[in-house]
Design brief:
five-stranded antiparallel β-sheet, alpha/beta, 1022 residues, 62% helix, five-stranded parallel β-sheet, 46 helices
Length: 1022
């Protein structure tokens, strides 16, 4: 609500104030404006009401009430000094002996104003005195506000435990008087208190609850305050877009409702920009905050603005200006309180300044003081940051034992906070310490640990979209590997850093990295090639003794992967009779290259006379045959394998895009050629034996996965028998049946029983996504194809390459998607959304539906051509009520499973209950039966024999659709039936934990126990 214009206010006042005693109406209207945070209009009404109250000879207590409202309106407008002057005047006019309650109210309001001016000692004294008088007076709202103010004073003077006690007491009182704005304020303060502690997730819950309360009450000023705190928490967790959204909303609302909060919004936005290295925007926000803070006399915010201007100058390398800002801010912050949060933060940044200017001895002293202050106020993030700087200073001074203690403690503390950047900086500092200590003392044997830690930090910084931090880590990796006489590995790190510098235009670092790369290339050129890696490999192999062909190939493949530092390696063989097949692979996790890629590589090997090196697969036409698979490959090698007259093969190795090792080098090619030769010898020796083995069997060596579909129904057993004959055909399968019959399970087992079982099984529910998203999920999309497509994405057809794609509820797919599915099934190619290129795919499609597709075709909802294309082979799963012979089998299976998983090994079911279950209708089929059995065992005691009375109430009385009310049933009875079902299912989902059930259903624990007894849902006792 915008403030009313002064002329409008006067017109309304003239109409309202016709009589002197109408001051109460003015007072009520002022309250409405203040509740809407329109303090300007509220102040005008209050001042007019005060004049009329005095003119009419109203009771002095009425005048006091109005003056206290005026003080609050001035305070909310940010006119703290005027509010202080009026509050002191009101206190001076009160007689504490004659009217202690009125005097206490005035003193309490004075304390609130003093708190807003950061005069914490005086505020604490006055609020505490007022609280002692008012706490038994019945003035609950005044008491709650005093508790809140005492919490603020404790919070900003470092007494966190006291602050929480005050905030929780205030929250309880506000709830008792049903003050929604007070509830939101108390929840906000509790959240703010916990933001930088290990309980930051709890802080987020408090703030989210507070937003909900404030939005219900329509208090936009309070929403601004809450969005500010949520925005701060989000940027600490690296959620940049969400943080920007909350902070932007806070700033927009604050400009209209609470100008004093605009300063805090600018500080928060500046801090987020500074973290993202957007220095110009950050500096602009900090200067706006500083100017506004000085204009309004808000000293704490002035100190904060100077603090972060100092940090900004520190990041920019302007150390003189950084020191000036930080020391100014420290002087102002100390005047507010000698050991508050701002003082601790500034000390931490001054310590960092001493470190970068080459004074680790001074940095250690200042950082130690920062640790002391921030520990006192329980600011975990700043404690961890200060410990990290102290540890870096101690390491620079050669105090490794002390440095290790500081850095280990820093990482431990920051792991419990939301601040992802400070957490990673602490880990980077600890990795440097490990590198210095590697090979000595208790660090011996961990020489790779610092490199592994830094690699993890590189990835985390890239995930946070902070490439400059990642470049710094890569430089550290280069320096470490150079120190370990591994210039080749260091060169890889420098190349990765240069790639990031180019992509993100980090020009300041380029020249330094180029110089480092030049030095490393010279070292690589001087490296000795005298050590024979091949000889060492042969020595390693001598320990394996005589092995079978398969074991030998597996051994060679493993050694090839380790020695060449490849990410993925496979062996493929092509014969005239069978075509190309993959014999063995490692590192692919199911995502194997397509046969088209392997054929193209084999053709390119030119009869085995050369080695193929693919430096940029994304521009290589052979890799385009495998869709986006080529985009994941950073470097690839293919080495020919001449096995026999009828068989040829290749050894393929690659490194994924962004791998630490970079591209393959000459030494790697030599090693891979050596391994290819050894594998060719082994396979050539066993070629005849393998041929005989292939010709002697028509069945693959595999377990029959379809036996996992439990059934003794004749129709289903015949269907499973026919499915086994489809093993090598790759034919599509359409699975039909009601919901819960097991269509998804059978589809997965069809895949597991097929020759495609080693590749991916990718399911998708066609009913879960709208047409645009479903098309993108299935076929992928190109960057910029539609709003929100910030990067290219592989579709599920490509994810399922060589495997099976399961389309559940295929009847729900929109007609447009159905047409594209038909094209894929006919042509075996896809075109991503936004692309003009077709990509070949090799995928088996299995579909499921519970609908009548013939009726859907008649209604125009399903393409007839697609139906016949999908329906290579159809399997219908009858509902459970039509195959009751399966129910005892399934009951035994589920009982055995849940007895094991739920720790009830001695629970049994009586014959009566099994007979009863066999006779039920089971509209939810197997899924419903499973949930009933699980619930029974969850609620049972170990050793129980479960009878009819252990069944859920809704099963005992007959399964009815809750949406249909039986004739003659009252509303109360229907509600009780639904209530019993909800409590029973929630008990099952919570594993019988009643406290958890009460929390989920949002009812009190005693009420839950009463309802469990009422509906006989409690577990049976022995």
């Amino acid at each position: 609500m915008k403030p009313a214009k002064p002329t409008d206010v006067r017109i309304r006042e003239d109409r309202i104030a016709a009589k002197p005693r109408d001051f109460r109406r003015l007072l009520d209207i002022g309250d409405v404006h203040l509740g809407a945070d329109d303090s300007v209009s509220a102040l005008e009404y209050y001042e007019r009401a005060l004049v009329l109250a005095r003119d009419s000879g109203a009771d002095p207590g009425v005048a006091l009430d109005i003056e206290l409202r005026i003080i609050e309106a001035l305070r909310r407008r940010g006119h703290q000094l005027k509010a202080l002057e009026l509050a002191e005047s009101v206190v001076a006019r009160q007689d504490a002996r004659r009217d202690p309650i009125s005097h206490a109210r005035a003193v309490g309001r004075l304390g609130m104003v003093q708190s807003a001016l950061h005069r914490y000692d005086a505020a604490k004294e006055n609020c505490a005195a007022a609280y002692q008088v008012l706490r038994n007076s019945g003035a609950n709202e005044d008491v709650a506000v005093l508790e809140l103010t005492l919490g603020v004073v404790a919070h900003f003077t470092g007494r966190m435990a006291d602050a929480r006690v005050h905030y929780e007491s205030a929250l309880s009182t506000f709830r008792r008087v049903d003050d929604s704005d007070g509830i939101a304020r108390a929840l906000n303060n509790l959240g703010t208190l916990l933001i930088n502690t290990p309980r930051w997730r709890e802080a987020k819950e408090y703030l989210a609850r507070a937003v909900s309360v404030a939005e219900e009450g329509g208090n936009y000023a309070r929403i601004a305050s809450l969005c500010l705190n949520l925005g701060i928490l989000c940027y600490k967790t690296g959620e940049w877009e969400l943080g920007s959204k909350y902070l932007g909303r806070a700033l927009a609302i604050s400009k209209d409702t609470a100008p004093f909060r605009v300063i805090k919004c600018h500080v928060a936005l500046g801090r987020m920009k500074l973290r993202r290295r957007e220095f110009v925007a950050a500096e602009a926000h900090f200067h706006q905050a500083l100017d506004a803070a000085r204009e309004r006399g808000q000293t704490r915010e002035e100190a904060l603005s100077l603090e972060f201007l100092g940090e900004h100058a520190l990041r920019e390398g302007d150390y003189e200006r950084a020191r000036s800002y930080l020391e100014q801010g420290k002087r102002i912050a100390v005047e507010v309180a000698p050991a508050n949060d701002v003082v601790g933060e500034i000390e931490s940044r001054l310590a960092e300044l001493e470190m970068v200017t080459g004074h680790p001895d001074r940095a250690r002293v200042v950082a130690d003081n920062a640790v002391r202050i921030t520990t006192g106020i329980n600011d975990s993030v700043e404690v961890g940051r200060s410990l990290r700087i102290r540890g870096e200073a101690e390491l620079a001074l050669g105090l490794r034992v002390e440095a290790r203690a500081s850095l280990d403690e820093s990482v431990r503390i920051l792991d419990g906070t939301p601040d992802v950047i400070e957490r990673e900086l602490a880990r980077v500092a600890r990795a440097k310490l490990w590198a210095c200590s590697s090979g000595s003392g208790d660090e011996a044997g961990h020489s790779r640990r610092p490199l592994m830690s830094l690699e993890q930090s590189v990835q985390r910084f890239l995930d946070l979209e902070l490439p400059e931090f990642a470049v710094e880590c890569l430089e550290e990796i280069a320096q470490m590997t150079v120190a370990e006489s591994s210039p080749d590995e260091a060169l890889v790190a420098v190349d990765r850093a240069l790639d990031l510098v180019e992509r993100h235009r980090l020009g300041k670092r380029k020249s330094e990295l180029l110089r480092l790369r030049s030095d490393l290339e010279e070292r690589c050129a001087e490296s000795s090639l005298s050590r024979s890696v091949e000889l060492q490999v042969l020595r390693d192999m001598s320990a394996f003794g005589v092995q079978s062909e398969a074991d030998s190939v597996e051994t060679f493949l493993r050694l090839a992967t380790e020695r060449s530092r490849a990410d993925r390696v496979l062996l493929a063989v092509r014969s005239r009779r069978e075509g190309i097949r993959i014999v063995a692979s490692t590192g692919f996790d199911g995502a194997l290259p397509s046969k088209a890629v392997l054929v193209a590589l084999l053709d390119g090997l030119d009869g085995g006379n050369r080695v193929l090196v693919v430096g940029d697969p994304r521009r290589d036409p052979r890799f385009s045959l495998s869709g986006e698979f080529g985009e994941t490959v950073g470097s690839a090698v293919a080495v020919p394998l001449p096995i026999s007259g009828r068989e040829t093969g290749l050894l393929y190795a690659d490194r994924v895009e962004g791998a630490a090792q970079g591209r393959f080098r000459v030494g790697d090619l030599r090693l891979l050629s050596f391994f290819a030769g050894m594998i060719a010898v082994v396979m050539g020796t066993h070629a005849s034996g393998r041929k005989q083995s292939d010709e002697s069997t028509n069945e693959p060596a595999q377990d029959d996965a379809l036996v996992k579909f439990l059934t003794c129904n004749a129709d289903m057993r015949n269907s499973l028998k026919l499915l086994r004959r489809l093993d090598g055909s790759g034919a599509g399968v359409l699975v039909t049946g009601e919901t819960g019959t097991g269509k998804g399970l059978l589809s997965r087992l069809i895949h597991d029983a097929s020759q495609r079982r080693h590749a991916a099984f990718v399911p998708i529910n066609c009913a879960a996504l709208p047409e645009s998203l479903l098309e993108s999920e299935l076929f992928g999309h190109e960057q910029g194809a539609f709003t929100g497509a910030v990067r290219s994405k592989r579709g599920l057809f490509e994810e399922a390459e060589g495997g099976t794609l399961f389309l559940d509820e295929v009847d729900k797919a929109p007609i447009g998607v159905q047409a594209k599915l038909l094209h894929v099934l006919d042509k075996h190619e896809i075109r991503p959304v936004g692309s003009t290129q077709w990509k070949p795919v090799d995928v088996r499609v299995v579909c499921a539906t519970n609908a009548d597709l013939a009726a859907a075709i008649q209604a125009g909802r399903f393409l007839e051509d697609l139906y016949y294309r999908l329906n290579d082979f159809q399997v219908h799963i009858p509902p459970l009520r039509e195959r009751r012979e399966d129910i005892p089998l399934l009951v035994r299976h589920f009982v055995d499973e849940f007895r094991r998983t739920l720790g009830r090994p001695n629970v049994t079911l009586s014959r009566e209950v099994v007979r009863f279950l066999t006779e039920c209708e089971w509209r939810g089929n197997v899924r419903e039966l499973e949930k009933v059995i699980k619930r029974m065992i969850v609620l049972a005691e170990d050793g129980d024999e479960l009878g009819i009375d252990s069944l859920p109430r809704e099963i005992r009385v007959g399964q009815r659709d809750l949406s249909v009310v039986p004739d003659g049933q009252t509303l109360r009875a229907a509600i009780e039936r639904l209530e019993a079902q909800m409590i029973g299912s929630t008990l099952e989902g919570a594993g019988g934990n009643k406290s958890e059930v009460a929390r989920r259903l949002q009812i009190s624990y005693p009420s839950l126990l009463s309802k469990i007894r009422k509906y006989r849902l409690e577990p049976r006792r022995r």
